[in-house]
Amino acid sequence: MWPEAWQRTPAAKRLPFADARKGMPLPAAVKRLKRVLEGLGAGQVIVSLNAEPRRLREAVTPQDPGAAVYFSLGSQHYVLACDRWQRAGDNVIALARHIRTVAASLEHLGIGLLAQAFAGYAGSPPPPDVSGTSRGWRVVLHIRSSEGITVEHINARYRALAKKLHPDQPTGSHGAMTELNLARAAALRELRR
User: Fold this and answer.
1) Is residue 177 a contact partner of residue 188, using CB atoms and an 8 Å limit?
2) Is residue 83 a contact partner of residue 91, using CB atoms and an 8 Å limit?
3) Highest mean pLDDT: which of 34-38, 45-49, 53-57?
4) Minimal CA–CA distance to 12: which of 62, 81, 86, 68?
5) Which of 14, 119, 170, 182 is the most buried (most CB within 10 A)?
6) In this predicted model, what pLDDT tens digit does every residue of 128-163 receive, in sequence order?
7) Which residues pair with 43 in a beta bridge?
8) Ranges of H-type helices in 23-150
9) Kind of pairing, strands 76-82 and 43-49?
């Protein structure tokens, strides 16, 4: 889900990523971004891409390369987004580098706090947490009971619904797909407990 306050880069103005790590697969880029945020003690990390998790594992680049990351530091929520580069993995790496650079400069120079450094990105609400809304993950995924539910069952329901709700489909939308993605994440978190 692209944050409302962030302007989009027109597709014609997106650039190739001139870097030694050019071509890093999208799944590796997402892992790197999450590691950077975990290293800062960030919580509620959600990386938002226009790609289904299944396609992410297959390293298929989404048509829309924009990437956003939602996270919290303490009780404050932040969002950063990037779509300057032509590949989604490059936009994710750009986010990771920006966060790492800000944190490293604070550590090196000793000026200010992490929350102060990210103050310009504050105020954006966290993405909706399906597990805490009236439409819980069971409702969104059309699952009646959690008894006997497996990861495979959740993924199968997700795939079936994604075919209908994806923004490229006549019956789909970005909002519906975001809700579906968050519902799947909440379901898998609950199963792991």
Assistant:
1) no
2) yes
3) 34-38
4) 86
5) 182
6) 554 544 467 888 888 877 667 888 888 888 888 888
7) 72
8) 26-39, 53-57, 88-109, 114-117, 137-140
9) unpaired
Find tokens 């909440």 and name the residue.
Answer: 186
**Cα(64)–Cα(94) distance, integer angstroms:** 16
Name the token pair of 182.
Answer: 């968050």
Q: What local confidence, expressed as pLDDT, does residue 128 receive? A: 52
Q: What percent of the chain has pLDDT over 70?
A: 76
| Residue ranges of domains in the chain | 11-121, 130-192
Give me the amino acid identity at 35. R
The pLDDT assigned to 63 comes to 75
> What's the full length of the chain, in residues?
193
The structural architecture, per CATH, of the domain 130-192 is Orthogonal Bundle (1.10)
Mean pLDDT of 163-183: 79
